[in-house]
Design a protein that fits this description.
It is built from eight helices and 15 strands. By secondary structure, the protein is α+β, with helices and mostly antiparallel strands. The protein is globular, with a radius of gyration of 19 Å. Bound molecules: 4'-deoxy-4'-aminopyridoxal-5'-phosphate. 4'-deoxy-4'-aminopyridoxal-5'-phosphate binds next to helix 6 and strand 13.
């Protein structure tokens, strides 16, 4: 494990933040979850870009230039020393008083952790997983734009709880128009008649870096892909379904709200993309 806090690498005991930190008090902050494959940081430039975009959109001035942050992350991975791992990068408004006003926060807190990642069991990839639709909706862009990767995950967490209560590990979240948005911490895709489809950014999603990678792999594999509007009907009648995320990678979904998807096993296109993804990251 490696810890970096406000400009320097620290021991675990020193990797602590104030109880007055607005990231903790109000969820006022942003984060990234980044994978390390074969000793290299996967899609670092994309994560850095999303991190600085998130910061800009919430008027959070990060205390470090992107190039210096990249260097620190590379150094963190070197110190961590293993080939496979995960980076959690977080910036908060920093310690302030008990009021909401970010102007009362003297300086942002920026830290990252480099650690191992607990992967889903192999069974999930081999057999696929069931999901349910959650009643907790993804927040609309005029409330809190889902493109900002903020520390406010409570509605996603409540959707996750609903999934667990239904005996599933993941839930599909709809937007306020009832269209499919994404899962609680993953994007979602379907395949119908050989065509790949995923909710478009305007449906209220986080623009996942794994999602983008899958769309690029689809082009390379000659699979037609569309970013579009999907409803639950599209999920129920899909030939294949899967979700994507930095932690989960590509996980086949074989049941949605009790409806069996396709043959009830991971589909051909899903497997093709999973293989291409594995090849790309050069691991496992
Ligand atoms: N949607 C949400 C809500 C997420 O939190 C995440 C990240 N875990 C994703 C999608 C997937 O994004 P990425 O592929 O960049 O990890």
């Amino acid at each position: 494990m490696t810890f970096y806090l406000n400009g320097r690498f620290v021991a675990r005991e020193e990797a602590v933040v104030s109880v007055y930190d607005h990231g903790l008090l109000y969820g006022d902050g942003i984060f990234e979850g980044i994978r390390i494959y074969a000793g290299k940081i996967f899609r670092l430039a994309e994560h850095i870009r999303r991190f600085y975009d998130s910061a800009k959109s919430i008027l959070l001035e990060l205390p470090i230039e992107p190039e210096a942050l990249e260097e620190a992350l590379q150094e963190g991975v070197k110190r961590y020393g293993k080939d496979e791992g995960y980076i959690r990068l977080v910036a908060t408004r920093g310690p302030g008083d008990l009021g909401l006003d970010p102007a009362k926060c003297a300086a942002p807190t920026l830290f990252f952790i480099v650690d191992t990642i607990s992967l889903y069991p192999e069974k999930f990839y081999r057999e696929g997983i069931p999901v349910v639709t959650a009643s907790s909706r993804r927040l609309p862009a005029d409330g809190l734009d889902p493109r900002v990767k903020t520390l406010n995950y409570l509605n996603n967490i409540m959707a996750k709880v609903e999934a667990k209560q239904a005996g599933c590990i993941e839930a599909v979240m709809l937007n306020n128009r009832g269209e499919v948005a994404e899962c609680t911490a993953d994007n979602i895709f379907i395949v119908r008649d050989g065509i790949l489809a995923t909710p478009a950014p305007h449906c209220g999603i986080l623009q996942g870096i794994t999602r983008q990678t899958v769309l690029e792999l689809a082009v390379a594999e000659g699979i037609a892909a569309r970013e579009t509007v999907l409803t639950r009907f599209d999920l129920y009648t899909a030939d294949e379904c899967f979700m994507t995320g930095s932690g989960a990678e590509i996980v086949p979904v074989v049941r949605v709200d009790g409806r069996t998807i396709g043959s009830g096993l991971p589909g051909e296109v899903t497997e093709k993309l999973r293989l291409a993804f594995k090849k790309l990251v050069g691991s496992r």
